[in-house]
Amino acid sequence: MEPSAETHHDLQKSLRDIEELLSRQQRVEDLVRRQAMPRHDLVETLVHKQHLVELQSKLDHLHPADIAFILEALPLDERLLVWGMVKADRDGDILLEVSDAVRESLIETMAPAELVAAVEQLDTDELADLAPDLPSQVMEDVFRGLSTEEREQLRAAISYPEGSVGALMDFDLVSVRENVSLEVVLRYLRLFDELPNHTDQLFVVDREEHLRGVLPLNVLLINDPETEVAALMQVDAFSFTPTDEADHAAQAFERYDLVSVPVVDDKGKLLGRVTVNAVLDHIRETTEAEQLAQAGLREEEDIFASVWDSVRNRWVWLALNLVTALVASRVIGAFESSIEKLVALAALMPIVAGIGGNSGNQTITMIVRAIALGKVGLDSERRLFRKELNVALINGLLWGGLLGLVAWGLYGNWRLGLVMTSAMTLNLALAASVGVIVPMTMQKLGRDPAIGGSVMITAVTDSGGFFIFLGLATLFLI
Amino acid sequence: MEPSAETHHDLQKSLRDIEELLSRQQRVEDLVRRQAMPRHDLVETLVHKQHLVELQSKLDHLHPADIAFILEALPLDERLLVWGMVKADRDGDILLEVSDAVRESLIETMAPAELVAAVEQLDTDELADLAPDLPSQVMEDVFRGLSTEEREQLRAAISYPEGSVGALMDFDLVSVRENVSLEVVLRYLRLFDELPNHTDQLFVVDREEHLRGVLPLNVLLINDPETEVAALMQVDAFSFTPTDEADHAAQAFERYDLVSVPVVDDKGKLLGRVTVNAVLDHIRETTEAEQLAQAGLREEEDIFASVWDSVRNRWVWLALNLVTALVASRVIGAFESSIEKLVALAALMPIVAGIGGNSGNQTITMIVRAIALGKVGLDSERRLFRKELNVALINGLLWGGLLGLVAWGLYGNWRLGLVMTSAMTLNLALAASVGVIVPMTMQKLGRDPAIGGSVMITAVTDSGGFFIFLGLATLFLI
User: Fold this and answer.
1) Which of residues 399 through 438 in chain B touch A, CB cutoff 8 A?
2) How far is the C-alpha of A306 from the C-alpha of B40, rounded, in Å?
3) CATH of the domain at A398
């Protein structure tokens, strides 16, 4: 066994090899084109063929997830060339792995019959994941090819909303009865060609498929084969229902180090299971969506997306921020006569607005995280409010005081310095208040406190900062 | 088996129950204090005792991870009360689970002998995780209690840097020889009291402990017990070395749906294994650190941290942002005479700066993510650069044009509108350039492109936006 293991570097190397092959092939095509050789002759070229054979063999040795990675890293034309060379029986697995944007680009090029052939080999829970992206005709054809049980599973899997345990669930499970011996279980397992991935436990059910307990493989393996399942099964094990929140399920997997968990309906009937790999994918998708949302990106941009797609993906955020900037601009506009009399105000006002935005974002980040982890009861609001206000006051006196001195030094006007210090302190207090109140209120209203808070903070601290600073200056300096 | 499964809600309920018990107890204490009853009489109060018994029984039924959660959610005095009531033999497991800030607060209250007793039951890889937080005297005592093999493991585990596979590794593994039958393996496993958690495969080694392959339990269970291990073991399975990057290992777990992976040294000798639960924890810690870093929070703030701790945690970021704001302020200061002549400039300039910051952050978020996923070769720089510039130009003409019209409408000066449009377009182009160049350059220099990019973008687009807008205005309007 090779102690290679540099999996990431290996994958990078595969990508570079394939890019190299593609670019060599491009050079051959260019050469041929310059000689005005017709396209079908080119395809016959020996060199060209040799590259394609090499490419084909490389692809055949890669895991579907790795091919998905490479497809995502290639520009559209090269991506479609590679996609065309992938063995048809792997298409389904690869479609499951690629990002939404790339999946769309691949599905567009496939004939309905090809698509049906690609996806009909998938498990029903995987089919449900792809369903929203497939033409309805394709889904109907696939549906007709399923057994009654599979149709029921597929209907159920599609019906669970994103973010629920049902959407993470698969139907690959091995169940046993409680009144048999381990010896019988062991012989039963030998009838399988293979066990489902992530089988760390067998599910013990009664005649009506009600979950009675679980039998971890670890327990099965270390105990005397004569023992009955009932004597060893764990009856207080975890289970989920399909409507439980996926986020909570993920927290349970992390907290209790789980590998698979049974999913049961209201009556305790075993429906399926959730495995740790589905949870890993869920966590990754959730954090990625959050990262993108923070910069106002509505969806993952394929790196090779067209300029127009990028503009469309980003415009809502820019428009929203422009509106808040315009409001802030009108606040300044209301004080134009003060600025005309004391132009130093124009230079100093962005500092007051800026520190409010930065500090408010720190507060909201802390609180949103604490809410997400379930650590903030509604009764903590006053305590947190007081703490954040105190932090704001200290920072105001500290940084506000410092900047007040700077303003005094720059403009030789101590009253301007005093206005600067007061405005910064007040804007920090405003930022702290909004940073606590906005996420707590959103939580009370049952909305996601992570969304939109940052824009709101910046809007308030910009307009508020300008208003406080220019207002104080107008009152005391003009 | 109960179809309960609302694990998250259950935990919230436990927390509320405990808070309720603590507050009832507080009321008894208050009552007693008002009657000036001496403290030791209070402890004897029946009501008080009853609450504590109830609390104790609740705690005894909770998983260590749940007790950790509750300790984190309680203010310091109540936290220490609960901590004192936890059975001593669970202290070690709980210390492993709590956040750094809370762990510190708990360790501070424990006598060295208590600490030694708490941690000496842990595995060596867990000990290594706690080691940085333990007093050196405690570590020495624990070290003396270890076997030679354990000492070696502990030394190794401590030596691997954070972020390496070595730091995720544990030493709980079951290894077998290749020249025995499955029957022998099954009998060998029955000698164990229990198998290590996350044992989804056995490691096949030779006499010198070199890894020869792996035997998944799934394979062990479905095959004829007469078969030899050598005939069934997988020789091309994954392995890591301790110096591999933890992030890459995590990507492999996600990509290939792994549960455990062996770790070998340069010569192929089996050292330990990485399991999916360690990977889950690693992913969570990494994304949390990123989220905090984005708002300039240096570490997780315990929700009940003191005001001073919060100020210390946040000041670097505020200071850094104040410096960049001060630079921007001096840029404006250089154009004060222009603003005095045309005060509309003061009201419009934050719009120009703001759109640059927002758009630049979108660009840098896209590119940092693409780099992290390994999808951007160094040769993609020019392509990305061109694309982002095009997006900037379109947005400039679109939003810049719109705001130009607004400025014209507001101030009745079409030349001011034209300057507005040009300045916004140029600042968007500047943002796009910096958004591509900064992360790509950091990657080339081998530094983490995710850190500091956002501050740099905002600094450049603020100062740059003011300079471009006021500069153009001074040239063409004044």
Assistant:
1) 399, 402-403, 406, 410
2) 75
3) 1.10.357.20
Cβ A150 vs Cβ A123: under 8 Å: no
Tell me the pLDDT tens digit for each residue of A97-138. 998 888 988 998 899 998 998 888 899 999 998 988 899 888
Same domain, A138 and A244: no
A272 pLDDT more than 80? yes
- Express the helix, strand and coil content of chain B in percent, nearest 5 each: 70, 5, 25
Residues 23-82 of B with CB under 8 A from A: 63, 65-66, 69, 72-73
| Distance, CA of A91 to chain centre | 24
Could you read off the pLDDT of B322-356 as tens digits, one per residue?
Answer: 999 999 999 999 999 999 999 999 999 999 999 99
Which H or E element spans position A263? Answer: strand A260-264
Residues B276 and B319 in one domain: no
A257, B202, B275 from B199: Cα distances, Å:
12, 7, 9
Can you tell me the distance from the alpha carbon of B32 to that of B211, in angstroms, rounded to the nearest whole number?
Answer: 67
Q: Which of B280, B313, B394, B470 to mutate to test the interface with A (most CBs of A within 10 A)?
A: B280
Under an 8 A CB cutoff, do B199 and A211 touch? no
From the list B72, B343, B370, which residue is nearest A375 (CB)? B72
Among A162, A195, A226, the domain boundary falls at A162
pTM value is: 0.86
Nearest to A239 among B3, B11, B403 (CB): B3
Q: Are B459 and B327 in contact (CB under 8 A)?
A: yes
Residues A180, A181, A182, A187, Cα dihedral to 10°: -70
What residues of A are in contact with residue B310 (Cβ under 8 Å)?
387, 391
